[in-house]
Design a protein that fits this description.
The chain has 310 residues and is of the alpha/beta class. The chain has helices at 41-53, 69-78, 107-121, 146-157, 171-180, 198-207, 226-235, 239-250, 263-271, 279-292; strands spanning 9-11, 18-20, 24-25, 58-60, 86-91, 93-95, 101-103, 126-132, 161-167, 183-189, 210-214. It has one domain: Alpha-Beta Barrel (TIM Barrel), CATH 3.20.20.100. Residues 1-6 and 294-310 have low confidence and may be disordered.
Length: 310
C-alpha cells in the first residue's frame, strides 16, 4: 500500500533514532486479557507487516505481554528487522499464573527481563527500554526509582540497551532518572480527557524528550464525547481519529502508539496523521477535559474489558 503521512517525525534526544510520530502498540497482539497467544496468529502477523508497509517505524511492546507471545510474534513477522525500525520495550512487571500483573523490579528481575526481551525479539541490543513503575492499579506512586534506573544504566554500559526511558512516573521520578542517565522518553497515561500530565509534557518538550501517552484512546472505556463526535462529523473522520489528531497537535514531542489487532483499525489510526485541526477546533476539544472530570484509573490491564492500546 502507499505510504501514509504519519504526522511528522521525531528524533529521540541524544540518539540517531528518528521515528514517525504515529507508531504501533503491540499489547493487543496477545490473547484476551493480554494473556496467551492471539486467537488469530496469522492476523496478528498481518497487522504488523501492514504497519511497517505503511511507514510505521516505532513499535512499542514488552515481554510481559502474553507473556512472551507478543515479542515472539513481532520476531516472526518482521525479523530480520528493516533498517530504521525502532522497537521500544518495557520492564518492571511480570505475569503470574493467575494472569495478574506483579511488580518485578529487583536487579535480578530487571536483568532477566532484559535478557528475555533480547531473546524473544531476536536482537543483541534493545533500542529503548522503559522502566515501568507498577503502582496500585494503573496509578502513579511517588518513591525512588534510582536503584532500578542504575541497573538499566549498567546494562546499557554492557551494550544490552541503547537508550533508557521511564513509564508511569511522576515529574520527580523523571528528574531522578535524568540525574542518573539520559532519559529519551516518558510513557504515561494521557489522552484528550485525562490530562494530568499537561505541565510535564510542556517541560519535556522544552528539553526535547519524547512523551508517549498510553491509552491514547481511553483504554478500558474508549473516549466518548458529544463534542468529539461533532468535530469528527465535520471532518468526516471517526471520533478516535480526532482524539489521536488532537494529541499530535498538543505538542510536537508526543509520539502515539495506538494498538489494535485489526488491519482496518490500524489504517484508521494511521490516517489520523492526515487530519488538520484549526485553532477553533482545538479550543473546542480542549474543553472536553474540563467537562469530563479527571478520575484516577483503578482498573488493571488484565481486565477483560480492555479495549485501548497501551
Amino acid at each position: 500500500m502507499a505510504e501514509l503521512k504519519l504526522g511528522g517525525r521525531f528524533t529521540f534526544p541524544g540518539t540517531s533514532l528518528t521515528v514517525d510520530r504515529i507508531g504501533y502498540g503491540a499489547m493487543q497482539l496477545a490473547g484476551p486479557g493480554v494473556w496467551g497467544p492471539p486467537k488469530d496468529p496469522e492476523g496478528a502477523i498481518a497487522v504488523l507487516r501492514e504497519a511497517v508497509a505503511a511507514g510505521v517505524n516505532h513499535i512499542d511492546t514488552s515481554d510481559y505481554y502474553g507473556p512472551y507471545f507478543t515479542n515472539q510474534i513481532i520476531r516472526k513477522a518482521l525479523h530480520p528487522y528493516p533498517k530504521g525500525l525502532v522497537i521500544v520495550t518495557k520492564v518492571g512487571a511480570r505475569r503470574s499464573p493467575d494472569k495478574s500483573w506483579q511488580p518485578a523490579f529487583s536487579p535480578g528481575e530487571l536483568t532477566a527481563a532484559v535478557q528475555d526481551n533480547l531473546r524473544n525479539l531476536g536482537v543483541d541490543t534493545l533500542d529503548i527500554v522503559n522502566y515501568r513503575v507498577m503502582g496500585s492499579g494503573l496509578g502513579k506512586e511517588e518513591g525512588s526509582i534510582a536503584e532500578q534506573i542504575t541497573v538499566l544504566a549498567e546494562l546499557r554500559r554492557k551494550g544490552l540497551i541503547r537508550h533508557i526511558g521511564v513509564s508511569n512516573v511522576t515529574a520527580a521520578q523523571v528528574a531522578e532518572a535524568q540525574a542518573i542517565t539520559g532519559v529519551v522518553c516518558v510513557q504515561n497515561n494521557y489522552n484528550l480527557a485525562y490530562r494530568e500530565d499537561d505541565a510535564l509534557i510542556d517541560d519535556l518538550a522544552r528539553r526535547g524528550i519524547a512523551y508517549v501517552p498510553f491509552f491514547p484512546l481511553g483504554g478500558f472505556s474508549p473516549l466518548q464525547s458529544s463534542t468529539l463526535s461533532a468535530v469528527a462529523g465535520r471532518l468526516k473522520a471517526t471520533p478516535l481519529q480526532v482524539a489521536l489528531a488532537w494529541l499530535l497537535h498538543r505538542s510536537s514531542n508526543i509520539l502515539l502508539i495506538p494498538g489494535t489487532s485489526s488491519v482496518a483499525h490500524l489504517r484508521e489510526n494511521l490516517a489520523a496523521g492526515q487530519l488538520t485541526l484549526s485553532p477553533q477546533t482545538l479550543k473546542e476539544l480542549d474543553a472536553v477535559s474540563a467537562a469530563s472530570g479527571i478520575l484516577p484509573l483503578t482498573q488493571h490491564p488484565s481486565d477483560p474489558a480492555i479495549t485501548g492500546g497501551h
